Each structure stands twice: as C-alpha cells, then as structure tokens.
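Show me a record, fold above all:
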Amino acid sequence: HMPFYFLNGGVGLSIENDILGAERNTQVTASYNYIQSIGRESVLSLGLTGGFIQKSLDGALLRAPDGVYEGPTINHNDPILSEGLQSGIAPVLNAGIFFRSPTIEAGVSGSHLLESSVQFTDNAVTEITFNRNLYFTFAYNIYIGEKLQVKPSVFVKTDFVQTQIDFSGILTYNGNIIFGSSLR
C-alpha cells in the first residue's frame, strides 16, 4: 500500500493465502482510498476494495464419523462432503468511510458487501456464502490540561445475526506514556 498524492489518496494490493486443515482461502484485492481535508485539522476518507476470493476444500483430508477410510478408499457416507479437491471463485467488495478531527474519530465500513457465494459441485452441491459484515467505530478525545489526554471509544461489529461491542479507553500522558483498557 502506498500514497498517491496526485489522486488525493492511496492505492494498495493485497494477496492472502490462508490454509487451515482441509480449507484454503486465496484472496487478491486492489484498494483505493480518497482523502479530503476539511478545514485545517479534519479529514474525511473514503475507501473501496475489490477483487476475488478462491475457496478450496480438500475432502480427502476430512473424516466423518460414519465414513470408510481403508487403504485408498475414501467414502464419507455423507452426501454433502466431497471426496476430492473442490474449489470456486467469488467476487469481493469492501467499502468504508472515516472522519477524523482533533476531538472526534468516527467510521463505518463493510466487508463482503455483495454476499457472494462459492459453489462446489461433485456428487452433491455445497454452497458457502460470505456473509456481509458491518463495522462502526467512534472515539472522542478529551484533553485534560496540556499533557493528559483521555480517549474513550466504542467499536461495533455485526453480520445481522450476531453483534459484538468493544468498549475501550486510552489514557496518554505527555504524548509518550500510554495506558489502555478494553472490554468486549
């Protein structure tokens, strides 16, 4: 990621390869962020990310309770589980907006905005959907004298099924001694 001053923002490229057991997620995305100064000390930032994700599942690495796994034979006895390697590709779209001033920081963003899905087809059809997630953050800077600053904040994450809320506070003294605490 790097700034592009003539575009009033920055660009980025992200390549991720995550392997966990029988599952592999490979994601490639490109990002653009537009930054606009508001007055002398405030900034509004808009970001957009797009790309694709490839999800793979190696059924040969899975074991089901009623399956038969003797020698080279793989039979999960489960119509949903594949016995070989399956993969599919889906688009990715993320976006966000963030405002920062000397006293307030606030932002809203979302990931997997398209709620795209990947379908594996073998003996049966298995579909994996990437749920839309929304994030909201708000912080307020309180200056107590010249050397002491208190910054309470809240961070909310939701997929409209479950919601998590983080409350945190940061105490800064003299710009270089920092103490913080968080509760989820």
